[in-house]
Amino acid sequence: MSDSEEDTPERQLKLVVLGDGASGKTSLCTRYTQEQFSKPYGQTVGLDFYLKRICLQGNINVALQVWDIGGQTLGGSMLENYIFGAHAVLLVYDITNFSSFENLEDWFKVVSKVCGSGPMPYMALIGNKRDLEHMRTVKEDKQQKFAQEHGMTSYFVSAKTGESVSFCFQKIASDILQVRMSKPEVEQHQRVLKAEVINSNNSNSATPTQLHRPQQQSSLCNIM
Length: 224
Ligand SMILES: Nc1nc2c(ncn2[C@@H]2O[C@H](COP(=O)(O)OP(=O)(O)O)[C@@H](O)[C@H]2O)c(=O)[nH]1
Ligand SMILES: [Mg+2]
Fold this sequence. Notes:
By secondary structure, the protein is an alpha/beta fold. The protein is built from seven helices and seven strands, in the order βαββαβααβαβααβ.
């Protein structure tokens, strides 16, 4: 009998999502953990906390704790506590809003400050709202340059359509745990996303639902 999923101890990863208000952090988190996108913009107050269980190649079970931090807390006294102990930080900006890109430097500095002389967490740069390509104000190579200069991996996503969202989180978890993503796995994540696009446009369900994929579960609570 092969190893069952229960035999593999679950790894916990803390992912902290930072960036300017309205760049799409909450949308990204809800798209990933609840497979939904709701349009009305409500400013995140304090912190939202999401949990999603995934399974990586080699039957590695991972609980992703996703911390969605209110953009208004740059300089806030709690911010450094939230970042502390993060395995990864996702710096999110809006590709149609140049100042959200310019402010990445400040967000990066906050993380550096928390880490002091210790190691930095895995740093991912996320250009969100890719569905608004026609309104883009930050060129792709600007993002790539910033990522390179700051030792970050770089992703372009759309929380609205779901493009590359699942792939991005799966890749981050795989990189941290040094697990390779297989080609079929990459393709599977991209296929699921395409299906989500169709569903999200037609869906009028506003309530968070349980995920359908058996190895994945999510939940949300709010911490002020
Ligand atoms: N077109 C588009 N709009 C988005 C996307 N992500 C978020 N938004 C919208 O941008 C606004 C701010 O999103 P929100 O997730 O609340 O941003 P946060 O303040 O960073 O958490 C909302 O009106 C969202 O509907 C995206 O990928 N594409
Ligand atoms: Mg928010």
